[in-house]
Amino acid sequence: MDHNEMEQKIIGEIEKTEQLITDYKDLTQPISPDDAIGRISRMDAINNKTVNEAALRQAQEKLRKLHYVLKKLGSDDFGICVKCGQPIPLGRILIKPESVHCVKCAR
Questions:
Q1: Which of 35, 38, 59, 82 is buried deepest, with most CB atoms within 10 A?
Q2: Residue 99 — φ and ψ, nearest 5°?
Q3: Mean of the per-residue pLDDT values for the chain?
């Protein structure tokens, strides 16, 4: 895979992740106590909000890593594990372009 294809893949992932973040932000709005929902439904809504907040944090972290990887693209550090210094397999980069660790170090 050449530099331009990799860059387009990373930019595509950034765009998808930014859209996910927007969606999660909408889902994590405060739940008004004035909403006319039952007690159990309100508890479910609060639980769903908590789950969506966790997903939002993960998406924000993924976006941060994608921007980092995009900056590294083309440098000697691109595709190198930040922990052990070994090359990250191309398959891992293609599946998870925000990877900064090899499979061994990611565990």
A1: 59
A2: -65, 130
A3: 89
Task: Please report whether residue 71 resides in a domain.
Answer: yes
Q: What tokens does 59 get?
A: 């998406």
Q: What are phi and psi of 87, to 5 degrees?
A: -65, 140
Q: Is residue 56 part of a domain?
A: yes
Nearest in space to 53 (alpha carbons), one of 19, 28, 26: 28
Among residues 13, 15, 8, 2, the alpha carbon closest in space to that of 74 is found at 2
Q: Bridge partners of 80?
A: 87
The pLDDT of residue 54 is 97
Interhelix angle 39-72/3-27, rounded to 10 degrees, is 160
With beta carbons less than 8 A apart as the criterion, state whether 66 and 14 touch.
yes
Token pair recorded at residue 60: 């924000």
- Domains contained in the chain, number: 1
Report the C-alpha gap between 87 and 68 in whole angstroms: 17
